[in-house]
């Protein structure tokens, strides 16, 4: 299998794991659940930091999130939120990893990017789709911040393990 095929296979495995995590995590408030898809999307971006892969991963993650969402109208929010968040994550990752190690950057990026994603999702849900009666700050504090904490811990644990498993040098993958 060629280089692109190997990378795509790993990205699909990451999305598959994300789907399982997204489906088994129960909704917490108003049908909203912590977004495990984000942590897996961030992991895929860190393992294969290339714009075409980031774009593909964000579209796949957005589509799967839209299909599996339990939030009424969350389909539109997910389709917009995931690509914007992925581009934000990739841009900051690209700049940050020139100055510090990727394993140090991972938790910072996970926390910040999850909050960016949550803000975009809530903004779209509240103001464009108009499905929530709740207060933005209440939803931000009860869903987004705990999700950011969880995604940060998740990536601190998972990134070094995944990085060893997917040793791109041994696989002949140079992105």
TrEMBL record:
Q: Name one Pfam family in it.
A: TrpP
> From which domain of life does this come?
Bacteria
Q: Which UniProt keywords apply?
A: Membrane, Transmembrane, Transmembrane helix
Stretches that traverse the bilayer: 6-30, 42-67, 108-132, 138-161
| The name this protein goes by in its record | Tryptophan transporter
